[in-house]
Amino acid sequence: MNLTRRSLLASASGAALLGGLAACGGDSSSSPGGGGGDSTDLRIWFMEDSIPEETRTWLKETFESQNSGATLTIEVQQWDGIVSKLQTSLASKDESPDVVEFGNTQVALFSSVGALLDISDQEEALGGGDLIQSFIDAGSWEGKLYATPLYAGARIYYYRQDLFAAAGIAVPTSLDELVAAAKALDAANPEGTPEFSGIYMPGADPHTNEGWLFTHGGQYALQEGDTWTGNLSSPESQAALVQVQDLMLNATKYALDSNDNVQAAHQLFNQGKLGIYSALNVAAAKIDQAMWDAGKVGVMALPGLTPGTIGKTFSGGSSIGISANNHNLELSQALLALIYSDEFQTDMAAIGGWIPGRTSFTSALEGPTGSIAQEIIENSVLTPNSPQWGVLDGNNVPRDFWTRIARGEDVKAVAAELDTTIADALNQS
């Protein structure tokens, strides 16, 4: 299926999704709190691999001890198909969870139709200026806050510093130097490893590729007033796309890897088949300890355009909010406050390995990536904050776009086509 056809299907499914969700906000406008019954049995949805098991246990036990007679059920959901499941559940008074975790690019899809409660009055109590700002932006809609940052993952570049040394290549300090180093390392292949690549740069990993886009000052689309305009044809975006395609065609053998392969790319790194590998900070635990112990692995942030600066990566992670169809407003607010307690936030860093929503607790991060994770997140950038972007993303439109770049298609032609597709989708009423 070509991208234009797929985008039309995405737009159609987006209209259906938003239409179905419109029912969520019907009751919130008729009562000050929205939802807010008197049930003492609360449910919270966390996503798979988000919250450590012992942290979930602590949350349940502490919440129930602090709220006599109340119970908390924690349900772990799978990412696959979650948007459709949220559409159905949040619209139902009976089936809606009370507090919900979302991918941060999904929040606008639900806040824009009244599926979430306005929690603007809780922002300061939950952390205020300590909260990840890009996530506050993502959780806001028309001047009100509907979701706060639960955690973020810093996109780290792991590299084989022993191979850099063997090939006589300096560790890059700018984006141009990184491109040159990856290509030189690919050509050198110091250990003569079969299927070796200087860098892992597949089209199926949009969030890695977006680092080049954002660092160059590009974006998928820009908004002026109420109108979105595609931005992939801008000079800044084009400079990024040219560099990314250069790496895909000349520094990696894995440009057309599948999404499943992307999730398992640490195995290639462990096998000595990659010189540079981009992944979240929590991926450090997946790299063989023997490689760390031998001093073979280094870590760095994506460099900026100017030597010595840090680039701008996608601010991936999760946000959390209260359903407009919650069953007890006071208890839901108490649960959200407990999630932003010192204990929970420390656990998210020390045990979960994530950058917690309250950034001051990033100091609890352990391991080799902890020293650079906070600065990476503070320089992070969002994709377009629009309900329709969540639909486009859910239909893999960005992934398909980068895969076309990986296949060697003309970057100007692909960008022009996508500018139209994205603008048409984002400008839908």
* CATH architecture type of the largest domain: 3-Layer(aba) Sandwich
Nearest-angstrom radius of gyration?
Answer: 22 Å
So, the CATH homologous superfamily of the largest domain? Periplasmic binding protein-like II
Give the CATH topology of the largest domain: D-Maltodextrin-Binding Protein, domain 2
Summarize this, please?
It is built from 19 helices and 13 strands.
Description:
With 429 residues, this protein is α+β, with helices and mostly antiparallel strands. The protein folds into two domains: 3-153 and 315-369, Periplasmic binding protein-like II (D-Maltodextrin-Binding Protein, domain 2, 3-Layer(aba) Sandwich), CATH 3.40.190.10; 155-312 and 395-426, D-Maltodextrin-Binding Protein, domain 2. Helices cover 42% and strands 14% of the residues. It has a six-stranded mixed beta sheet with strand order 2-1-3-12-6-13. Helix 1 (3-21) runs parallel beside helix 19 (411-426). The chain is globular and about 65 Å long. The protein starts with a helix and ends with a helix. The model is unreliable at 1-18 and 23-33 (pLDDT under 50).
Write the layout of secondary structure elements.
Blueprint: H1 3-21, E1 41-47, H2 53-66, E2 71-77, H3 82-90, E3 99-103, H4 107-111, H5 123-126, H6 133-138, E4 140-141, E5 144-145, E6 148-152, E7 155-160, H7 161-167, H8 175-188, H9 206-215, E8 221-224, E9 227-230, H10 235-250, H11 259-263, H12 266-270, E10 276-280, H13 289-293, E11 297-300, E12 317-322, H14 329-339, H15 342-350, E13 355-356, H16 370-378, H17 387-394, H18 397-406, H19 411-426
Parallel strand pairs: 1-2, 1-3
Antiparallel strand pairs: 3-12, 4-5, 6-12, 6-13, 7-10, 7-11, 8-9
Helix pairs in contact: 1-17, 1-19, 8-10, 9-10
